[in-house]
């Protein structure tokens, strides 16, 4: 009995040590503003080697190549016949005209409709294939071209759990908030990127770690799972009819308990996705921040908040919670979290370098206007002549003056 108890305590100690070592390696910040180090004659910020804070003018974030890119990954929206013709044109041009090594998913080539394109047979033999979740693309791809909607960019992000190559996204889907390029003159636009004349938007991602509760012998049921997301991680009540009861911690401090349908933790890129539908503000993707948005909170004062990039959020079930909570990552990998399980979320050090069609500001506001019809309303009619306004004002004053005299009492 004593030996079993000692083994259990030893296992818990090792688990605590492993967790501590993991979170000590966590980078505290990414693309966060780097303030001046001195304030006035005496005050200054204490030096801390754990703080990695950098600031860069967004206009200076431009793509450059230290050697010519040779390999390109083409991500195509599957099961969409309208994208087959652009896909064939693109890979044919990349292989024959630019002599590049082209990678595509094996599932894309399984499409039987590709057989209808006679000139694709010669290109097909020269394409490199891979299978998502099985083959590792790390250090094999120089840049990425996406054909489709926003989902293609999210899929490209999920393929790289560390450094992500620059992504060029063509708008061939439904919404296209993250896909600024039109396919009409794709040759000129791709050449411009290959020559290194393009602006970049560094879209931060969230690093999500799921830690399962321990068993009686001090071992975890499952190993910690680490997932990087570009839009958001969503925690909800799943199929349960009860309100979710979730505890939210920020850097180890209990902030609040969420009672409602759930919680959205999103990047600035994801602020225009699920978060804005739940009432959050829209944040430019270059802003270093993490958004916390409740889903249908059972409180009139629970408003969305924005916290600094690099802080660590912990999400866990409250002890009095009646049901489990469910978590999904960019709409995928949905799984249940039970009592004792916890989810840790912080800013990843691996952003997605998204290539701009024009620049960071123009691309984002164009997307707001075209996709979300931001601030679209009928404009007020213009007053044609200033004299009309003056005349109208004078008439009004005369009427007021006349009425004022009429109300005076008679002299006695």
Automatic annotation (TrEMBL):
Top-level taxon in the UniProt lineage: Eukaryota
Keyword NAD in record: yes
GO molecular function: NAD+ kinase activity
Enzyme class name: transferase
Known EC number: 2.7.1.23
Residue numbers spanned by region Disordered: 387-412
Gene3D superfamilies noted in UniProt: Probable inorganic polyphosphate/atp-NAD kinase, domain 1 (3.40.50.10330), Probable inorganic polyphosphate/atp-NAD kinase, domain 2 (2.60.200.30)
Biased composition annotated in UniProt, kind: Basic and acidic residues: 401-412
InterPro entries: ATP-NAD_kinase_N, ATP-NAD_kinase_PpnK-typ_C, NAD/diacylglycerol_kinase_sf, NADK
BP GO annotations: NAD+ metabolic process; NADP+ biosynthetic process
Keywords per UniProt: Kinase, NAD, NADP, Transferase
Family assignment from sequence similarity: Belongs to the NAD kinase family.
Name of the protein described by the UniProt record: NAD(+) kinase
Biological source species: Euphydryas editha (Edith's checkerspot)
